[in-house]
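Fold these two proteins, one after the other.
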Amino acid sequence: NDQLLMRLIEFSRRHRSMTALESLHQFLASSTKRPDWALLVQAEIANLNQDREGVYAALLPLLANSKQALSAQKAQIYFRTAHLLGQYDYLNPAIQLYKDVLRAYPQDILTMANLSELHRARAVSNPTEVNQPDLDQAMDYAQQAYALNPDSAVAVACYAQRLFETQNYVETEKLLYAMVEAGTASDRMRETWMVSVEAVIRQLEQIGEVYRRQSLCRALLQVDPGNHLATTQLVQIRQAQRALAESEAAEANSPDSE
């Protein structure tokens, strides 16, 4: 069945088993009932070879019939097709396919997150001009995914990344803190969180805030021991607190204070 086929393809891909994929392709190509699956496996073989043009050539016939993604039976084929196209920067067809899949599964968080990523990629693909409608779409899909399930790690990571890109470091730090503390954040999210924390620490320094800044410095050192900014900030805070305490003690002991 289709679920078993997809699992077999995923297993072969993850273990980089060219032999298994080629055998599966030969079997599927000989069957007139599963031409779409044969094309997908052909694309997976090209993907293992890092053959960008080969991936696109294999998937091109699927693009002509992409409305089949509206059926639940075909949606998983087109989801993977969209992923491969996006992986090789064929952004327009990848976005369209994901939208077709989303019509079949309107509450699929992973599809929303992938659409958000691809719209963001397309928005900045032109080095001379940012595409604002794509940026807006990227944020919209991220917000939809997060609103649908704020406990989803995929939704949280996607929404946090979009907030980070708008320099909303305070909300980014808050969203990602639990994942980072639990050790479940990806390398990308961990880096996003650390950069956000450093930005918030600098903002707090500018307004003279101490307690929140101390807390963030300590949290940052838990994740990145020896972090220069956090270490320096804690030293400065301790020195300022010591100077203040000494000043208050001297004032209390001065003759004028009696």
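Now the second one:
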Amino acid sequence: GKFLLKGIPDLFLPEISIEEDFSVYLKYRKCRACQLITNGGAVVAKVQIRCNKRQVEEIETELNSYYENQTNSKNQNLLPSEEAKLKDGWDLSFFDSRGAPVIAHYLKNNFGAHIIKTKEIITYNRTKNKNVTRTVFSVRLPEYLIGDIILYEDRPFQIVQISTINTKIYDFTNKFIDSKPNEVILTLNITNMYSRGQLTKFQIISIDHKGNSVQLMNLSTFDYEEVSLDSFKYEIKEGLEIAGFYWNDELFIDQLPPLKK
């Protein structure tokens, strides 16, 4: 939008007009006062989100999108009453127990998160002679992102897909895609080698279909490399910029199509 400011700084000077642009940024949350009135102020559920530092910005965007969609759908009761941002995630508190599992499974479906559901004692009800508890969802996101190069069992792999249940990884040594349950992936001794943005950039100089080879130029050193045409799982052409990485003096090609500029 724009705002227009008019004024006379001095009686002997003409009127001055200033016009400036401004932006409005909306943050969708349920009013805490409304929560206290409608729910009595008791935090009955929590969601503890923990993620890789590289994911913080992406997860924050997803959370805001989720809040906006729930608000527009008039499901404000599913929004957290409090949101504490941490270095490695968020702690969300809910006055309505229905909101916590919805957002926990939203992150599982979109990021392959692993969920652990536990109970936390709030207080003891002497009248009913039992503990009063709240539900806590521990939501742990993988340490990797799609496109990451990881080292597992002394072999390089690439994360090529993350779904609700499984993570698909490309084995560069044996040249095939393996699928593992997300819960299993989280327990593996994996070392992150490169994020996709850290891969070396190359340009395709020529393609020899008969010889089944592709000539590349390293855009950092301007050295030439030759790889097998079978290294590419997507359509290529001369002049295309692609990515790769070196491991044990061998060049491996990014298995995902180049990002559109």
